[in-house]
Structure formats: structure tokens, C-alpha cells
Write a structure and sequence with these properties.
The complex is a heterodimer.
Chain A lengths: L5 H29 L3 H26 L4 H9 L1 H27 L6 H36 L2 H4 L5 H12 L3 H30 L3 H21 L7 H21 L1 H8 L1
Chain B lengths: L1 H18 L12 H16 L3 H8 L10 H11 L6 E13 L5 E11 L3 E8 L5 E6 L1
Antiparallel strand pairs in B: 1-2, 2-3, 3-4
The chains are: A mainly alpha, B alpha+beta.
Chain lengths: 264, 137
């Protein structure tokens, strides 16, 4: 039985709040600042959900592993596999952004709409990918401390119980908080990449800007997959991630005036 | 924006070139058939449940403390508890790699088909054909 410290439980609660409050606060901010942004915000969420949860992840996690050539490719050409995985994320998400803006947000292409779209996209990603996981970990942690974890997992196969115990044993305050911080950086990046796509529409160079968005997405995701293999620590990786987020945030702020001039 | 695009393309291509394909030909110190047989033997030993033989006789000295019988049993229980009977090896690929000390080693990726699932094993072998790495998924 694992005893999970108060510090870790506190970190899980804080991480949870960050993942859930980030999009809510972001929505409220952009609503006040830019008015009528509900539609791009919701479409931002939908874009992530459809492009990743419905389309890409089942292909990557369920379909492709059925093929021997794919499993051999992953083991034999690991770095190339990471880059192609990152490219697939770039293609699915950025093309998804592009198509949604092109066909469903024809009247929602202001600067503020782009901000809201990015917040929605990054926000639902934070909730689904990290937030839900933190809820599970929190429930398991509290149950473990009360000695009721086995009762909670009653009926689950032993392998599942072992997985939960292993996950609990691997928790650390730093790890949990870094995970939440990463979501903040990810949201800034999604806003930035949304802004790239939006600028494409504003300048009537949609294809060029879409390509840039895909490449930027590919590069950032590739770094996340390759750097740990090269021995870069989790903390250092977050510094790199943060730098990428800062660059994209800078781009977002720089594009405010040009976009407002183009879309007025 | 075109400049940014060119910079990003250059960086992505640089990443591809720097990281390389991740695999090279098997070193001349290895016989491909022997390497494959050693990997298959490791898989069938593990599959039979003889974790003690796997760990004591097939794993190199430096990895014995990591690839213990208990670790291997837990891995099998986690990844393939209900796999059913072994059917056949459906695919194999052999290639070479170099470790931090510039020592060549062999890697065999073996895909095994069971009644209920397929499992991909990645077996790394030193020049004595002892296991220095073992992954299954």
C-alpha cells in the first residue's frame, strides 16, 4: 500500500485547478476583452477533440500497432518515428484548425477570435490529457491513504491494480506541478499556432501559413520526444518548452496590430 | 513569414539528419542467424514461464540486477496476461547499434503471434549473445 504525502495531494489539487481553471479564466478574459467569442472558443475545443481524440489517437494507438512493419519501424528508426509522430500531430491539428476556420468561422476571424480559439483548443487538451489523469490520481491517492484502494478497484484485473500502484509510487510534487505548468505553456503555443493560421487567412496566404503552423507544431513536438532520449532532464525539457511557448506568445502579441488592421 | 518557414524547415531537416535513421547494419562481429536464434530463444524461454532460466542464463551480468525473474514475470503479466498459446514469429528485423562506450551490439525486433494478441519484443544482445536490453509491448 502506498502512502501519498500531503504535499503530493496538494500538488494534484493545484494541478487539477490549473488544468480546469485555465480555459475557464481564459474564456472569461477573452469574453470581456473581445466580446462575442463563444463560437471560436467552442470550435477550438471541438477541433482538438475531433482531430486528436476521434481521429489521430485511434490511428496511432490502435490501428497502426496491428501492423508488424509499424512495430519494427518504431524500434528500428526511433528518432524518425518521433519526428513522424510529431508531424502527424502537426498535420491533424493544424489542418483541423485550418478547415474549421475556413468553413465554420468565416465571420469569426478577428484577432480576439483567434485568441479564443487557441484558448479553447489548449484548454480542452489540458482537461482531457492531464486534468482527467490528475482526478484519477487524486481519487486513488486518497483511497490509498485511507486503505480503501483495493475496495475501490474491486473487480479490476491484478495488472490494472499493479499499474495504479506503480503510478502512485511514481508521483512526485515536482512531476505533478511540471505537468500542470506544461499545460500553461501548451496553451500559449496553441494560441500562437492558431494565430499563424489566422494570419494566413488575414493575408490571403492560407496555404503558406498552414504549412508554417504544421512545421512549428512538428518541431516543438519533436523536441519533446527526442530531447529526453538524449538525456535532457524533465525540468530542462520544460525550460525548452517554455522558451517555445514564449516565442509563440511573442508572435501572438506582435500580430495584434497587423491582424486588427487587416480584419477591420 | 516565409523566412520563419524556411528557418523551421531547416531546423526540422537538421533534426532528422542529426538524429539519423536510428539504425545501422549489424556489426561484422555478429552472425545474423545466431543473433535471431538467440532472440527467439529468449522469447520462447520467457513465454514458457521459466523466468529463472531467462534471468540467470540468458541475461548479461551487468543487466542481471535489472532483468530479474520477478521483473520479467511482472512485465509478462502486465503486457500479455491472456495471450493464449504461441502461434508463430510473424516478423523479425535485425540491426546494429553502438552504446555509450562505443561498443557495438545487436538489436532484434521480433513480432510474435499468439492466439489472442501480437507482441513485439525488442531484444538487445552483446557480442556474447547475452541480453543487455529487453522490451515487450
Amino acid at each position: 500500500m502506498n502512502t501519498i504525502s500531503t504535499g503530493i495531494i496538494g500538488a494534484l489539487i493545484l494541478g487539477l485547478l490549473i488544468c480546469f481553471l485555465l480555459p475557464i479564466v481564459g474564456f472569461i478574459y477573452s469574453r470581456i476583452r473581445y466580446k462575442k467569442i463563444a463560437k471560436p472558443f467552442l470550435f477550438g475545443m471541438l477541433t482538438f477533440f475531433v482531430s486528436q481524440i476521434v481521429l489521430r489517437l485511434p490511428i496511432i494507438q490502435v490501428l497502426l500497432p496491428k501492423f508488424d512493419w509499424y512495430n519494427i519501424f518504431v524500434a528500428k528508426y526511433y528518432y524518425l518515428y518521433v519526428i513522424l509522430l510529431a508531424l502527424s500531430a502537426g498535420v491533424f491539428e493544424e489542418v483541423g484548425r485550418f478547415l474549421v476556420v475556413k468553413y465554420f468561422l468565416k465571420k469569426n476571424r478577428r484577432y480576439g477570435d483567434g485568441i479564443a480559439f487557441g484558448i479553447g483548443h489548449g484548454g480542452i487538451e489540458a482537461i482531457l490529457i492531464v486534468g482527467m489523469s490528475y482526478i484519477n490520481m487524486l481519487v486513488y491517492s486518497l483511497a490509498s491513504n485511507k486503505g480503501t484502494l483495493e475496495a475501490l478497484l474491486n473487480g479490476a484485473p491484478q495488472t490494472a491494480i499493479d499499474s495504479v500502484n506503480a503510478a502512485l509510487a511514481g508521483l512526485s510534487i515536482a512531476g505533478v506541478l511540471l505537468g500542470a505548468l506544461e499545460r500553461v505553456f501548451a496553451m500559449a503555443m496553441h494560441i500562437g499556432m492558431t494565430m499563424i493560421v489566422y494570419m494566413g487567412f488575414a493575408k490571403k496566404k492560407e496555404g503558406t501559413y498552414l504549412l508554417v503552423a504544421i512545421l512549428v507544431h512538428t518541431m516543438v513536438d519533436s523536441l519533446c520526444g527526442i530531447l529526453p532520449k538524449l538525456g535532457i532532464s524533465g525540468g530542462a525539457l520544460e525550460v525548452v518548452f517554455g522558451a517555445c511557448a514564449a516565442l509563440l506568445l511573442w508572435y501572438t502579441l506582435r500580430m495584434k496590430r497587423p491582424m486588427m488592421e487587416l480584419t477591420q | 513569414m516565409k523566412k520563419i518557414g524556411l528557418v523551421v524547415i531547416t531546423l526540422v531537416l537538421a533534426m532528422v539528419m542529426i538524429t539519423g535513421c536510428g539504425a545501422k547494419a549489424l556489426s561484422e562481429d555478429f552472425n545474423e542467424e545466431e543473433v535471431k536464434k538467440a532472440a527467439e530463444n529468449a522469447v520462447t524461454t520467457l513465454d514458457s514461464g521459466d523466468y529463472e532460466t531467462f534471468s540467470n542464463e540468458l541475461v548479461s551480468e551487468i543487466m542481471k540486477k535489472d532483468l530479474t525473474a520477478e521483473v520479467m514475470k511482472n512485465a509478462v503479466d502486465q503486457v500479455m496476461p491472456n495471450r493464449g498459446a504461441f502461434v508463430e514469429f510473424t516478423s523479425e528485423a535485425t540491426f546494429g547499434k553502438t552504446d555509450k562506450n562505443e561498443e557495438d551490439y545487436a538489436v532484434v525486433v521480433v513480432v510474435a503471434k499468439y492466439e489472442s494478441q501480437k507482441v513485439t519484443y525488442t531484444v538487445s544482445l552483446d557480442k556474447n549473445l547475452k541480453i543487455i536490453g529487453f522490451y515487450l509491448k
